[in-house]
């Protein structure tokens, strides 16, 4: 029973193919000529290319048609966004900003102290870094919601990288000098990317890379806090899972039950407050105020029961006063120059990526635009100036920005309010932190970094793209098992390898016709609604053609032809049509592809469809006067090419038939003449 069915299917396919051929031969389609684009000089092309690379957002558009005075005002507002919203600022906006500013200050103060400890820096440096940078960002930044200050990941990376060569306990001054110098180089990199409009460089940190990296770093940061949560004194300096866990269980004798009890209680309190705020965003103030409340409560408990004499370590006395200048501490020579440059580059890119991503996230929610290049300049200048005023690396924090957004911040004035609050703390409230236990700082850090583990995003990446999920997993495992830097490098390397694969192995598909139309689509994609056209092999190249993929494309197209001819004594392919609609650019090596194909195809025709302007120009220069550039080898659409060439094939077949018939007639007449002569 199966055989007749298969035969019927085969007959249906043959009938459909024959009908397709007949359809194209009868189409009265106009053939449009493929023309060269308007002439442009080399300078004009270079100018247009640079504009697309460096100025895709056309920042000078707002200056067109304006008076000189207006241009000066717009220029000042572009450089200093505060001049854009400042003149129209009202008391109503200030009421919202002051609430948001005080709220994020209650979170920034304990986090600043905690993150400085995470970076192996004096706790006071974390508060310095929450004072000067927010003031600068309020003047230079374009985001209304971004709350600026130290962040966990950049703190971890800076601390771990410098600690590889310098001990923060044995050489604290040198360690601090290297931290400030690394911050300076990070700022130089960030501002340079903004001024030179090279922000696309940070796009090499893909979503998958960042999700995996952040999750791995969050795990490592949390494990590092076991030192504070368990009361361990001698702890490993390494930032990998195995050494950290080994150190935890090796130093069991140092575990302090008092520290563990206090740490667990406050960790549960902080995690509970975070959960409440996530479930009910209107209660944002619960999670925002919980760290400061925890600091106050734990400090009062330690002071009241003298817990510092019973195994609970405390911060100790902190220096009062505003940021002292640190420009004289910057190290631009010596054996550690390479270390600070490397640390500055890595922390600069990571913090810049985080800051811009956070700013754009909240801008999308409130439907306004954040200028990425201005953000780079703002964050860069913030870190350059910060490095000379006793600040280490800072950027936009997701947790503080979320609180700032939920608290109703309207402008960057909330950063100024936060900064003023931190200033008051530095001037008058520092003695109150003397009895703050280190365990509470560890609990605050753990609560903050838990939010960096984005399980829904990881699941979404797994569902959409398995290769991206592999990048995510490599970043995660690399960070927790090797180190933060190596994990990031592995993930970026795999992402770049993916891009290289896409460049060197571009997608090519065979197109078929949707019966009754002049529409052509991928045969594999539209299996049930497309059919091949007899005598034609139609291939679509869906990428730029360059030196990296020319050989592959040549081999792949010839393999398509071999697959079509497989099992046939005589090839049925008369024309190979290459649809170049998706080929945006081509280089000098790519140009040779068509000459090589022409030689390999022998008697078959090579037809190009819809070469774009840049491609057409280069083809004209390379093949002017050759067969490839003939009008019957260039078409605007695949439908026009098939229709025109089908008629040509029909005419050729008719001519061949006529020639054969005439030859037979001549032979027949000659035979009759011979027979007549023989009979005579």
By DSSP, the count of extended strands is 8
Give helix % range: 55-70%
Rg: 35 Å
Strand order of the largest sheet: 4-3-5-6-7-8
Topology:
Layout: H1 2-26, H2 42-54, H3 68-79, H4 82-85, H5 91-118, H6 123-128, H7 132-140, E1 148-149, H8 152-163, H9 172-195, H10 207-224, H11 226-230, H12 241-250, H13 257-279, H14 284-305, H15 337-366, H16 372-387, E2 395-396, H17 398-406, H18 413-429, H19 438-450, H20 455-464, H21 466-481, H22 484-504, E3 508-513, E4 520-522, E5 536-541, H23 550-565, E6 575-579, H24 588-601, E7 605-609, H25 613-623, E8 634-635, H26 638-679
Parallel strand pairs: 5-6, 6-7, 7-8
Antiparallel strand pairs: 1-2, 3-4, 3-5
Helix pairs in contact: 1-26, 5-14, 5-17, 5-18, 5-19, 7-16, 7-18, 8-9, 8-15, 9-15, 9-16, 10-19, 10-21, 10-22, 13-14, 13-19, 15-16, 15-17, 20-21, 21-22, 23-24
Write a structural description.
By secondary structure, the chain is mainly α. Helix content is 63%, strand content 5%. The chain is built from 26 helices and 8 strands. The chain has helices at 2-26, 42-54, 68-79, 82-85, 91-118, 123-128, 132-140, 152-163, 172-195, 207-224, 226-230, 241-250, 257-279, 284-305, 337-366, 372-387, 398-406, 413-429, 438-450, 455-464, 466-481, 484-504, 550-565, 588-601, 613-623, 638-679, and strands spanning 148-149, 395-396, 508-513, 520-522, 536-541, 575-579, 605-609, 634-635. The strands form 2 sheets. The chain has a 6-stranded mixed beta sheet with strand order 4-3-5-6-7-8. A two-stranded antiparallel ribbon has the order 1-2. The protein is elongated and about 140 Å long. Residues 1-14 have low confidence and may be disordered.
């Amino acid at each position: 029973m199966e055989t007749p069915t298969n035969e019927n299917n085969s007959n249906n396919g043959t009938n459909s193919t024959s009908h397709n051929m007949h359809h194209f031969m009868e189409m009265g389609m106009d053939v449009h000529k493929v023309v060269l684009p308007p002439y442009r000089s080399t300078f004009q092309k270079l100018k247009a290319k640079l504009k697309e690379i460096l100025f895709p957002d056309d920042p000078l558009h707002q200056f067109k048609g304006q008076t000189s005075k207006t241009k000066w005002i717009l220029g000042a507002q572009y450089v200093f966004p505060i001049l854009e919203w400042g003149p129209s600022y009202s008391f109503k906006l200030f009421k919202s900003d002051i609430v948001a500013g005080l709220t994020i200050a209650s979170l920034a103060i304990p986090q600043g102290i905690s993150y400085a400890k995470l970076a192996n820096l004096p706790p006071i440096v974390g508060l310095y870094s929450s004072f000067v940078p927010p003031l600068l960002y309020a003047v230079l930044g374009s985001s209304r919601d971004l709350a600026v200050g130290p962040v966990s990941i950049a703190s971890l990376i800076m601390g771990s990288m410098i600690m590889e060569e310098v001990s923060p306990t044995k050489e604290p001054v040198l360690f601090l000098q290297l931290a400030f110098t690394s911050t300076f180089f990070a700022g130089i990199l960030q501002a340079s990317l903004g001024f030179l409009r090279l922000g696309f460089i940070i796009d090499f940190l893909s979503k998958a890379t960042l999700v995996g990296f952040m999750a791995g770093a969050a795990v490592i940061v949390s494990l590092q806090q076991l030192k504070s949560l368990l009361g361990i004194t001698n702890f490993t300096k390494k930032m990998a899972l195995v050494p950290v866990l080994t150190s935890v269980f090796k130093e069991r004798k140092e575990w302090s039950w008092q520290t563990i009890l206090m740490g667990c209680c406050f960790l549960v309190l902080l995690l509970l407050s975070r959960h409440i705020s996530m479930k009910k965003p209107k209660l944002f103030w619960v999670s925002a105020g919980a760290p400061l409340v925890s600091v106050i409560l734990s400090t009062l408990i330690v002071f009241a029961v003298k817990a510092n004499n019973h195994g609970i370590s405390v911060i100790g006395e902190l220096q009062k006063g505003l940021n002292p200048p640190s420009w004289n501490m910057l190290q631009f020579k010596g054996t550690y120059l390479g270390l600070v440059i490397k640390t500055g580059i890595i922390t600069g890119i990571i913090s810049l990526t985080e800051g811009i991503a956070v700013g754009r996230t909240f801008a999308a929610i409130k439907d306004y635009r954040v200028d990425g290049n201005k953000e780079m300049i703002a964050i860069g200048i913030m870190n350059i100036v910060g490095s000379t005023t006793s600040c280490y690396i800072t950027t936009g924090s997701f947790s503080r920005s979320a609180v700032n957004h939920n608290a109703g911040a309207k402008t960057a004035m909330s950063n100024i309010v936060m900064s003023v609050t931190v200033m008051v703390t530095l001037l008058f409230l520092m003695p109150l932190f003397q009895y703050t236990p280190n365990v509470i700082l560890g609990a605050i850090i753990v609560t903050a970094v838990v939010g960096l583990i984005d399980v829904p995003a990881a699941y979404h990446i797994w569902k959409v793209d398995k290769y991206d999920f592999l990048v995510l997993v490599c970043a995660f495992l690399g960070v927790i098992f090797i180190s933060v830097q190596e994990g990031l490098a592995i993930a970026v390397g795999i992402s770049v390898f993916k891009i290289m694969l896409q460049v060197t192995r571009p997608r090519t598909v065979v197109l078929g016709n949707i019966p009754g139309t002049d529409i052509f689509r991928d045969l594999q994609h539209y299996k049930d609604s497309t059919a091949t056209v007899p005598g034609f092999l139609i291939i679509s190249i869906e990428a730029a053609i360059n030196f990296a993929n020319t050989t592959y494309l040549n081999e792949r197209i010839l393999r398509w032809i071999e697959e079509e001819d497989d099992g046939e004594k005589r090839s049925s392919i008369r024309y190979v049509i290459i649809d170049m609609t998706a080929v945006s650019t081509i280089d000098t090596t790519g140009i040779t592809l068509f000459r090589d194909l022409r030689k390999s195809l022998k008697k078959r025709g090579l037809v190009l469809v819809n070469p774009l302007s840049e491609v057409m120009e280069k083809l004209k220069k390379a093949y002017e006067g050759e067969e490839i550039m003939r009008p019957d080898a260039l078409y605007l659409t695949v439908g026009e090419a098939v229709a025109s060439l089908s008629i040509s094939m029909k005419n050729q077949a008719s001519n061949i038939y006529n020639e054969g018939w005439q030859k037979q007639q001549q032979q027949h007449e000659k035979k009759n003449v011979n027979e007549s002569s023989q009979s005579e």
